[in-house]
From TrEMBL:
GO terms for molecular function: DNA binding. Keywords: Repressor, Stress response, Transcription, Transcription regulation. This is Heat-inducible transcription repressor HrcA. It comes from Roseivivax jejudonensis. Negative regulator of class I heat shock genes (grpE-dnaK-dnaJ and groELS operons). Prevents heat-shock induction of these operons. The lineage of its organism: Bacteria, Pseudomonadati, Pseudomonadota, Alphaproteobacteria, Rhodobacterales. The gene is hrcA.
């Protein structure tokens, strides 16, 4: 945030300490922090009235808020962002947390899907939050594509990759498609896609679709725009798979019925595999862990949750997936950040070693 350096410059040592103590107290307890509480913890001895004046100044800057007239203060979203960017002290990864995450490797590391399931469960258990793991896409070049009509509203796309991998994906075709039009669509795509990965197909065909929209068969166009039938039935093979674990952990954190409903909607969206590509896009702006607080990202703005997310890479240092933790905005960021970072390194190492 461009505002945070300016705000830090406007704060003297006393203001910074009061602000830090309020945020740390809130993150630990979830309750507003009052001036009398702070008089017992500040490094310098000052009166409660002096602390109240400092807190009013911080409220004027938009960093603190008072939920009730007589209550203490809690950090605003801007305040949490300032704290995370400028004052957060990230802890070292604890030995117990490291051992629990290392144990996810288990005995069968060849089973990547099983490994990622275990990672999601372990990450949720270690953090007591909700974990998200986005599994890697299959990035080998495509050799052949074929469509099979199953019903009026269901069809199967068979993708054959150059490394011998075969994926069958069930999807909903545009209305009015016939077996004949599906064969024509497959012929059109096969003439263009051989030797290209799915990501390359989407990128390179974007301009061609814009230029030749009327000429390109409806089915072929929509399949490319949708990521070659990326919407699959439950249990089907997906190009990207989002593993959600620990939903109950997050739901139990919230007491308000309205907040509970917003969080349920968030997880319903995630579990229906909406915006999975956006989840991965969150991690593309630079390496390392990123923190999104509340409305900073539209995926989590409605629920008012925070997301701590990190990408993992293959042997070629290419981002192929991501791991993250969702929780209330009062997450213990100092502890969660190294856990997410280590988990991403663990997954990336396994993927790289296998390749």
């Amino acid at each position: 945030m461009t505002q945070t350096p300016d705000l830090l410059d406007q704060m003297n040592d006393r203001s910074r300490e009061v602000f830090r103590r309020v945020v740390e107290g809130y993150l630990e307890s979830g309750e507003p922090i009052g001036s009398r509480t702070l008089t017992r913890t500040l490094s310098e001895k000052v009166s409660a009235a002096t602390i109240r004046n400092v807190m009013q100044d911080l409220e004027y800057l938009g960093l603190l808020d008072s939920p009730h007239v007589s209550a203490g203060r809690i950090p605003t979203q801007l305040g949490l962002r300032l704290f995370v960017d400028g004052l957060l002290e990230v802890r070292d990864l604890g030995d117990d947390d490291r051992h629990r995450l290392d144990a996810t490797l288990g005995s069968n590391t060849d089973d990547v899907a099983g490994f990622l399931d275990r990672v999601g469960a372990a990450l949720s258990g270690v953090t007591q939050g909700a974990s998200l793991v986005l599994s890697p896409k299959h990035e080998a070049p495509v050799r052949h594509i074929e469509f099979v009509s199953l019903a009026a509203d269901r069809a199967l796309v068979v993708l054959v990759f150059s490394d011998g991998h075969v994926e069958n994906r069930v999807f909903t075709p545009p209305p009015g498609q016939t077996p004949s039009s599906m064969r024509e669509a497959a012929n059109f795509l096969n003439a263009l896609i051989e030797g290209k990965t799915l990501s390359e197909i989407r990128g390179e065909m974007g301009e061609a679709i814009a230029m030749r929209r009327r000429e390109i068969d409806t089915l072929a166009r929509e399949l490319v725009e949708q990521g070659l039938a990326a919407w699959t039935e439950e249990g089907g093979q997906a190009p990207e798979r989002l593993i959600v674990r620990g939903r109950a952990n997050l739901l139990s954190e919230e007491g308000q019925a309205e907040e509970l409903e917003r969080i349920r909607e968030l997880f319903d969206d995630l579990e229906r595999k909406r915006d999975i590509a956006e989840f991965l896009d969150l991690t593309r702006e630079g390496d390392g862990v990123r923190i999104f607080i509340g409305s900073e990202n539209k995926l989590f703005s409605l629920s008012g949750s925070s997301l701590v997310v990190s990408p993992y890479m293959n042997a070629d240092r290419k981002i192929i997936g991501a791991v993250g933790v969702i929780g209330p905005t009062r997450l213990n960021y100092g502890r969660i950040v190294p856990i997410v970072d280590y988990t991403a390194q663990l997954v990336g190492k396994l993927i790289s070693d296998r390749s």
